[in-house]
Amino acid sequence: MKKLVNESEQHILQAIMNGAKNFHLVYLDRDFNFLLVNETYARNCGYHPEEMIGMNHFDLYPHPENEAIFARVRDTGVAEEYRDKPFEYSDQAARGVTYWDWTLTPVKNAAGEVTGLVFSLFETTDRKQAEEKLRESEQRFRTVAEATGAMVVDVEFATGRILVERGFHELTGYAPGEVRFTRDWWIEQLHPDDRSLFERQLQDVLVHGRDYTLSYRIRRKRGDYIHVQDTGKVFKNSLGQVERIIGGIVDMTEQKRAEEGLKQSRERLGGILASIADGYISLDDAWRFLAINPVAERDIFRRPAGELLGKAFWDIYPQGRGGEFHQHYEKAFRKRVPVHFEAKSNVTDKWLEVHAYPVDDRLDVYFRDITERKEKEEALRRETQILAQVHESIIATDLEGTVTLWNKGAERLFGYTAVEALGNPVSLIYFDEDRSVLHESVVAPVLAAGQHEIEVRTRHKSGREIYIHLSLSLLQDESGDPYGMIGFSLDVTPRRRAADEILKLNEAVVMRNRELETINRELDAFIYSVSHDLRAPLRPLRGFSDILLEDYSDSLDNQGRDYLARIRKASVKMGMLIDDLLALSRISQQELAREDIDLNRLAASVIAECREGEPGRDVRVDIAAGITAFADSGLMAIVLTNLLGNAWKFTAKKPEAHIEFGSFEQEAKRVYFIKDNGAGFNPEYKDKLFQPFHRLHGDNEFPGTGIGLTVVDRVIRRHGGKVWGEGTIGQGATFYFTLE
User: Fold this and answer.
1) Distance separating alpha carbons of residues 516 and 589, to the nearest angstrom
2) Which of 25, 62, 266, 504 has a CA positioned 20 to 30 A from the CA of residue 354?
3) Domains defined along the chain, listed by start
4) pLDDT, tens digit, for every residue of 406-422?
């Protein structure tokens, strides 16, 4: 079978076809073999798209009539389309007869020769069945309406015909023929207070095409008003437009009178309050509490309902009068509009998301405690400030490519200040002629794989070229949904220019070597400078905190000591983050010095340090004998320190902790593993383990910076190997790695 598109084009076409979720799309060659199949078509046939490539359409579903149509389109080069064409699947008898709208389009080359066919299908089985059900539904509705003694009104919108079939005299008191029933005449009979609502509701029915039940008051011939219930059945055409309504109108006056006395209590009080997941209160127009649900009592106001009901809100909480909450409530009440806002309450000292709705003479307010989310946002803001100071260029964007983080390193590398870059497209650092391939070569691979590394040409603010090594990672929220990207950029312009010179002039080799030596010396000096400059303010911060705790502890109250402990903890974590970021930066530059190394000895050393740090823990550690590797000993020490250290950390809550280090042969390769019976992780997120700053456990469970496994991944990949993890929540984890 001839391949009509190259691999890159095939991926693009496949992505486009898969985007057509509601259509079955295939691309066939002249012999009706599948070249491309979208996911919808393949799933309908019981296959994966790649399994169907090369299969013949009519070997799969023999059908002489359809095969003749396909041959005719191929031979004539003229497209054909069909509507509601029946088809029975030979391998899916339970489905019975299905109906399809389909189009067969020839694909021609530059010479006008047909090279293949595009087959597009849309299933109309549901529509055909719906039309039959519609006819049955109309008859059933008419029968029910007549059985209840309702006035039946039949409206056809295409012709404007309005037919009152029965019950008109009994309901309105007008004799047949005494008045001409029209929409405008009927609206004139409505109570003035009900007219605008009726017209809005009727418009909503016409727009959305939903069956309805309306309640309103109409004036009878003798001038009195009665309550009616208007129940309508909506019938739509094939385009989903309302073409007909049959309504049954029933006198509900007596029932309304019986219900009126219970209406207020049924609306405001009842079991529904206890079922509302958010906090809920209801206030009257004098700001008195009418209702409060258990969530609001327990989590928001922390007072029993008996202390609040019947009392004015601002009398109980005068500190809130005139504040942000008061202003929003006033707006909802006075302007009769819903309001939605987020704010920190000076009444409850919590961050709340609030929805307030005016209903009749009251205001219904729903609260959701978002304090935890706001605290996380503040923590993220602090982390962003730290990243902004890292010397390496770090840029983050949303999924649309708008810059959301631009640190000092990026300012130095590209010449734009953060003020100039934030909120603008990241394409500002690319040349105009490169922007067309930016998504394909940079963005798309990250969205597909979660990580991507590439060397690209970029543009300094001054206009000069900068070549960078770009390491990109996808940013995902706690649910695993992507919300942006973060990129670490290393200026490789000198190396790139030197490489270009080598290709042009062989005699430039000596000069290139000198340039590389200079770059390495500058890099070493840079790493030392960053380590020293960033650590310098941390040492006195931690030192003076320790002095205050040791020498002035008695002069501080518990809160003061707690503040100092928090300062010390934050400085330690910042130090760890600096260490990890510097380690990540060094790994990309450090030359490999491979040698035969004893991994048993390195592992035993790491475990000894762990035991020394926590002498009270009883952990069984099994290290298999004879584990060796041909690798860089310093970098492998980093790998084992991170993996064994994680195993030690995540087994801390296990009374019988067990850690195992071993290896085995698989497909002629040595696979090393570190296994523990600790906290484990959700296997759905195993692809995110090695992304920087992506942690599967919170600091309150297990401390960390989210860089360690990224460092491990970088080291293993520099050795030509790969690393992966498997785990189950509460049952431990196993990390495997290979080396070339």
Assistant:
1) 12
2) 266
3) 7-123 (3.30.450.20), 129-259 (3.30.450.20), 275-369 (3.30.450.20), 374-491 (3.30.450.20), 591-738 (3.30.565.10)
4) 888 888 889 999 899 89
